[in-house]
Amino acid sequence: MRGIPLFKVRTLKNVEIQELKAFCQVKNIPGRTSETKAASTGLKYERYLELFEAQIDDPNASLNAEELDAFMFEQLCFASYNIHFMYRITNSFFEQGMTEHEVTQFLQGHLTLKLNQNLIDWVESSQRIDVATSRVEFDSTGELSNLHILMKIGLIEQQHGKTNFFCAVNIDLKSSILVIKLDKNQVKDANTTPLEVVERISDALKGEGEHGSLFDCLDLNFGQLNEHDALRTIYNLYAHLSQEAEKILNQRMEDDTVDRIEAFLKDIGVQNIQDDYIEQIKAVVYQDITSTMDEQIFKSGWVFKFRFREGDHSQASSRTDLRQPVYSNKAFWQLKELIHQTGELEEGGFHWNLNGQNPDGGFVDARLESKNGTIIVHFYNNTKSDRKEKEEFVIRKVGENL
Amino acid sequence: MSYEKLVKIYKASGCENIFPIKYVSDLHEYIEWSLKRGKRSLSPFKFARIAELSLEESVTFFMYFSKEEGIFELERFVECPSTSCDARIYLDDEFHLYKQLLCEECSEYHSVEIISKYIKVYFRLKDDFTKCESVCSKSKKSDDPNSMHDILRGMSEGLKPNSPSSLSLTERLLEEGDDEPVGLDTILQINQTAEEPILEYDWLLSMMKRTHS
């Protein structure tokens, strides 16, 4: 017998029951249906915890400590968040040339980071910021690419009872971007706001304040993004997708369309035919073609939402209900040129195909917004599976365009 | 979308016991007209005016064409109740099994019990029918949906120029509200009061049980 219990049920409540069910199925854990029946979902979590404890206790079981830890880490560090705040890293402990060994040694030496601590061995403390574990990733050349830190930052009352309030941080050194991840609902249930939480965590990460001692060894400095940089980044991501779409739509139009439009305008008596008139009518044709087109045509993906600031005091936006291409909306075509001229966008909703050439290679739906000196990324619920890969994709995209 | 296909459904669904066959040709014209305009959702409100039926009769008629082998799928949604969210939550066929639904835009959960009173429905033509139409449609690519000239040119001959009601049909065509959804409660009520429920989808029967209790 281990004697020591696993992590607490209030940590497990951060994982959706469907995920637990699916995980037990994949690992073929006996008793996964019969022993997890309960009067309420809250009690169901207790049953699952007991099931896991029994498995870990049994050396011959279908599930071992590493597998359970891997699952919990994926859930707690990636899948359970829906709002990500991105900042640009300006300084860190890491220097080019540090080997994998040197990095690991360094981080292991700072016990507050709990490098590679297995989640099932995590003993909670009552500190306001309580590190659960941290993990490192190296690229193919052995250089440090990511440092992930998972921390508990509170205890809240939620739907299924007392639940641990978590925050995960992804320090991406390849893109020089730091991401602070939260669950909006947990923030609300904690009677605070996302910004307040982000401020608290940021201070600690920079080695300041009450909990600065946890992380000051990392020598981290990161700052608010310049507003124009953020707006331009979102614009760049938007432009890449929309220009690809325009090219495809242009190919679909018949060669003599412009001539026919001119002839039509002459025919109905328009005296002074301007390019702009022809563009407006072409836009109508584009709208029509898009509405009948198969989304498969857009290899890289598409834009499903955009919000654009016109001058100091007004905004325009357009989006589709079900995250389909926005190109069949009139507003898109009317604002397109204006957006290209300013080269800045407040908010964009992007459907990206992870494999640019193959629409069946998975996708990510994300909404990016420039606000309060950061780019906030909102992931949609359908993006829960393979969330780690999708998060990395978005970080890379932002890093490339920042 | 052939007239014959509609007649087949008209007979198989039991519609022929309630409505005279004249309405099937009204429906056929309305469908042709809508598809030419790229409109996949048909409005029972508009159909009521075209066919001179009451709204309730019109919805009932549409329901007969919404069974498994019918032409309509019932697209359900509810406006997200969160005060700062303007998104719609679209409901799948299992929504009635959950206690709460998630709005993907604002990440808030809402009780199914409470939102069930606010569910709206579009009668949406099934995919197989619209694909055929875009291939065999006679409209030219350069037809401008905003051009009155093109609309009038593309209009079917059979539509009456003047309905007995005080406003003419041409004006009706220009009216927006083509995509007006129907409240789910209207559909539930019709299903309830019919001798036998017209539609038997799980979610619908589940909703009926709730409102009845």
Give a brief outline of the structure.
The complex is a heterodimer of chains A (402) and B (213). Chain A is of the alpha+beta class and 402 residues long.
Give an overview in words.
The complex is a heterodimer of chains A (402) and B (213). With 402 residues, chain A is α+β, with helices and mostly antiparallel strands. Chain A is 40% helix and 23% strand. Chain A has helices at 9-12, 17-26, 41-57, 65-79, 100-109, 184-189, 194-205, 212-215, 227-252, 257-267, 275-292, 330-342, 387-401; strands spanning 83-91, 130-138, 144-158, 161-172, 177-182, 221-223, 301-310, 314-319, 347-353, 363-371, 374-379. In chain A, 37% of the residues are buried. The model of chain A has no long low-confidence stretch (mean pLDDT 91). Chain B is built from 10 helices and 7 strands. Chain B has helices spanning 3-12, 22-36, 44-51, 55-64, 112-115, 127-136, 148-154, 169-174, 184-193, 202-212; strands at residues 41-42, 72-79, 88-91, 100-102, 109-111, 120-125, 182-183. In chain B, strands 1, 2, 3, 6 and 7 form a 5-stranded antiparallel β-sheet that branches. In chain B, strand 2 and strand 3 form a beta hairpin. In chain B, helix 3 packs across helix 4 (55-64) and helix 4 (55-64) packs across helix 9. The radius of gyration of chain B is 18 Å and the shape is globular. The chains are: A alpha+beta (402), B alpha+beta (213). Chain A binds chain B through residues 82-83, 159, 183-185, 254, 257, 260-261, 264, 268, 281, 284-285, 288-289, 291-292, 321-322, 378, 380-382, and chain B through 38, 77, 87-88, 90, 102, 104, 106-109, 134, 141-142, 144-146, 149.
Shape by Cα distribution of chain A: elongated
The mean pLDDT of chain B is 80
Topology order of chain A in helix (H) and strand (E) letters: HHHHEHEEEEHHHEHHHEEHEEEH
Q: What is the strand content of chain A?
A: 15-25%
Secondary structural class of chain A: alpha+beta
Helix/strand/pairing category of chain B: alpha+beta
Computed over alpha carbons, the radius of gyration of chain B is: 18 Å
Distance between the termini of chain A: 52 Å
Which band does the percent of strand residues of chain B land in? 5-15%
End-to-end CA span of chain B: 40 Å
Total DSSP helices of chain A = 13
Number of helices of chain B: 10
Largest sheet of chain B: 5 strands, antiparallel
Largest sheet: number of strands, sense, barrel closure of chain A: 11 strands, antiparallel
Q: Would you identify the regions of chain A where 5 or more consecutive residues have pLDDT less than 50?
A: none
Number of strands of chain A: 11
Largest interface here, residues on each chain?
Answer: A-B, 25 and 18 residues
What is the overall pLDDT average of chain A? 91
Query: What Rg of chain A, in angstroms, do the CA atoms define?
Result: 25 Å
Q: Tell me roughly what share of residues is in helical segments of chain A.
A: 40-55%
